[in-house]
Amino acid sequence: MSSRIVSGIRPTGHPQLGNYFGALKQWVSIAEKADETFFCIVDQHALTTLKDMQTLKQDTMIMAATYIACGIDPVKNAIFVQSHVPYHTELAWYLTCITPMGWLSRMTQFKDKAGKKRENALTGLFTYPVLMAADIVLYGATHVPVGDDQKQHVEFARDIVQVFNNMAADEILKMPEPVIQKSGARIKSLRDGLKKMSKSDASDYSRINLNDDNDLIALKIKKAKTDPNAITGDIKSLENRPELENLIILHALLENKSTQDVLSSFDGQNFSNLKLSLTDLLIDHVSPIREKVNTLLNDQAYLNSCLKDGADRANIVAQQTMQQVRTSLNLLQI
Ligand code: TRP
User: Fold this and answer.
1) Distance (Å, rounded) from C-alpha 141 to C-alpha 6?
2) pLDDT (tens digit, 9 = 90+) per residue, 222-237?
3) Closest CA to 16 of 7, 25, 27
4) Which conformational region is residue 12 in: left (phi greater than 0), alpha (psi within -120 to 50 degrees), or beta?
5) pTM of whole model > 0.85?
6) pLDDT score at 183
7) pLDDT value for 318
8) Which atom from ligand 1 is nearest to the alpha carbon of 141?
9) What structural domains and CATH numbers belong to the chain?
10) 237 CA distance to ligand 1 middle (Å)
């Protein structure tokens, strides 16, 4: 069976290290083995949480440049913007019509984001998983690389595929498999080792953005929260030291080593050595990406042509799926 990979990131705020390790870096290696890949910039998903739309256009461009700068080749992979393929929202509506409200109320991300005032939560936030399911099944995805926090949404997509195919009495929609990307999802905030590193955290010092300059990277690591004890090589010691664990994991990811190896190499040392070494590694990784993103952003015509080409390729596949979906729903076609 040929493999089709589909994934996406929301263009909200500047991409950060978690996007790199949690998604982009792994997409590159998954894409090498896949037959076809669709990497979407999910701007319609961003609308569910945007406070204002002022920066959406620019953030979408930045995300496109970041995909490419992180190694996703726009010739081999379809890189496109969700709103450039109108079938996402069309299919989402059809799927909404077969989705029990109870399934959506159980989504942990909705519960977290909606908070206590459930009645005031926006409908788009509530039906977000349906749009995500549409993103996936439109392209007949066989594998969907996502962070741990999105696993429930992919499982929801699987449930909907089952319902739809039962109703159609045919295998119209392909059953997607989640591919859970563990390491990146484990990167935590630099201010609180228990919180995920996030684009939406109020403090910019909680994260390393992919456009941070070298001095800012050094400063953020210098200020990163620690604890008063020295480092020991015992992996169990990390259990109650979330900030240390986070810095060690980050170091290990950057060097492509195991957590234990990194921890052993800092046995008996204090945090400042770890931080200096981490700063060097981060600068080595982030500065080439930052420079590539800036170069790409200065060539809007090139970025536009990549996105246009990606959208053309995505539209062809999406249209084929929609044709089958419309037929199985018995919509009048003339
Ligand atoms: N919901 C995902 C997230 O917040 C982003 C996303 C939207 C996605 N559509 C998708 C991921 C389709 C994979 C496939 O991270």
Assistant:
1) 6
2) 999 999 999 999 999 9
3) 25
4) beta
5) yes
6) 58
7) 98
8) 14
9) 4-186+299-328 (3.40.50.620), 211-294 (1.10.240.10)
10) 34
